[in-house]
Amino acid sequence: MKIQESESLISTNEEVELKEILTPLWTGRWKILFFTLVLTFFVACYLSLLKPSYRATAILQIGSNKPANTLSINDAFNESNASKEQIQTQFELLRSRKFAERVIRQLNLVQHREFSSGKYNSKLAILEKIGARDSVPSASDIVAQFQKQLSIVPILGTELVKISYASFSAELSQQVANQVGITYLQYQDEIHSASKETTSQWLVDQLEELGKKLQVSELSLQTYREAEGIVDIDGVVGLVAAELTQLTSETLRADKLADDLAISYQSLKKYDGDIAKLSELYEISNHATLLQLRRAEEKVARKSFELSQRYGPKHPKKIAVNAELMSLKNRITQQVYDIVTSIEKEYFSAIERANGTKQRLAIAKKDYLRLSRLQNKFSQLTREVDTNKELYNNYLVRLKEADAMGNYKANFYVRFIDKAIIPKSQFAPNKVLVIVITFMLAIAFISIIIIMRELLVDTLNSRRKLDNFHEAAILAVLPRIKASTNQRKEDVYSTDNRFTEAIRTLRTALLFNSEKIPPKIIAITSSVPNEGKSTVALHLARSFSEMEKVLLIEADMRHPTIAKNMNLNQHRPGLSNLLAKTHQINECIIRDKSVKLDILTSGVSPANPLAFLSMKRFSMLIKVFGNFYDRIIIETPPVHAVSDAVIISKLVDSVLYIVHGNKTKREQISSGLRMLKQVNAPIEGVVINHSENIDTDKYQNKYYTERSNIIKLAARKRG
After folding, report:
1. pLDDT at residue 471 above 70?
2. What pLDDT is recorded for position 527?
3. 319-332 burial, b for 16+ CB within 10 Å, e for fewer?
């Protein structure tokens, strides 16, 4: 519920702000309507003086794809279809200045009246003379005007383009629109013819040049072949490459074998002469012959051991076995030496083979590099010959095709879809549309001016400005008085019911202020004249008189208005006469017969009103009147005009500051309040008068418009 209430409050505030903005528009609605009609009238008059303009349109097709029946040899020189950029180029060509000059020459538009007359018709001779040119227009001016009136618009998503021309003459607009298309077709034919001749001559020149290049390249290739003796360079290079691969493998194997034998050779040199150490080497101990001899030695040694168990050392068998064993040991020693010699020889032989293989590999590398250079040079010359031969053949084919493609137009085609016809109705000026737009823009422009004026005026004419006003309290907002249609001249209290209710609201605010006792003596002043303080004082006194005995004193002796408003004699005795002791109180006070209200007018205007108001007699009169009346309301002069109000403010209980809501500047209000505050005047608050933009009580229109609903009470008899 709280959220809904807050939303309703927000919406209410927004409605109030919107109404405060729109109220000035409603107030000045007749001004807005008047100036709008005036502007619309002038625009309508101006439109009636303009010549009618006609527009004719022709539709041209600029295709980006070739028709199916188009003659094509190798897809028309291997060219692709026209691109979007090429089509756009054609559109810009149609808009170009050079193309416009060509159309103008063909139609002889330089002498046409279209470019020498003005835009006004012959209704007013003066405007016709103003619109007409003093001299013959120049060619550049004609071209500029022609381009301005010509419109080239591509139709999106299609290959069509609209060619439109606007003119004061319907026939001329048709002629120009069609002539632009015709001229463009002629231009394309000329471009094709010139392009064909240029292309053919260019191909012939290129063929001659390419023939010379081909002869030179073939001669260079043959000379190089003979100089180097080249028959089959690719086969020779292949053989050398295979040999190079084989030698590389052999070199690697020879180097590996030499490295292995080098290790064995180093071990042999280390144990040179030591049979036992040499026999333990792997290369010697695993030799087959040596292994066989060692097995025989072991067999003979076992046999010797068996015989030594049976016979003595001098037994013949024992001696024979020992001799055999000794022979085997000598053979083993000799075999070790033979193996060492064999390894040494094999090592030196491996080194020689590795060196020889490396020398052959180096020679093969030199041959391969030399042949590679020959092959590269030969390939380069061969490629040059092949390239020149291919180019020569291609250009020769192009030349043949160019002769065969005599009727070929281009890689896009152009044709008329619709030719322009003579327009039957004008397209400009669109008087109805222009008048409607002018009417709407005038209303919007004048409305903006009024709204900006209201927002920029530094007055208290809106609720927003009232909320930002902090110099004094706002007691009431009084609407602008609207006199009733049946108001009698003698009935000064007959006003708008909303104003009457606003006065009663002000009375209630004065009586029921909880902070202090209701004021008995009230002074009413303002910043400058004509803010309605006299009217407010009169109606406030009348409102109080409905409940109590009230005296209204007109202390503005410089410009009195109450007596005039009440249709009284302005020279009758009043306050000035009472202060000058020329008349008695009963002669000066007027007793209103319709309401319980006594009025003391200003009387005869003295030479120095301030001196009269500064007299002690004036303050004594106020005290005396306070004994007989329940409420005393004093109307004083404006604060900025004279200092009368400042003097009177010291004698009252409350001061009401009247402000014209639409005229009084905020600076005037602030300075007037400062003057009163400097003398410690009891300022009750500010009353906004003549308000047009601030809606204080929306329900008042509903409940207080019908006077028949208001019960009129009879005036109470005076006691």
Report:
1. yes
2. 86
3. eebeeebeebeeeb
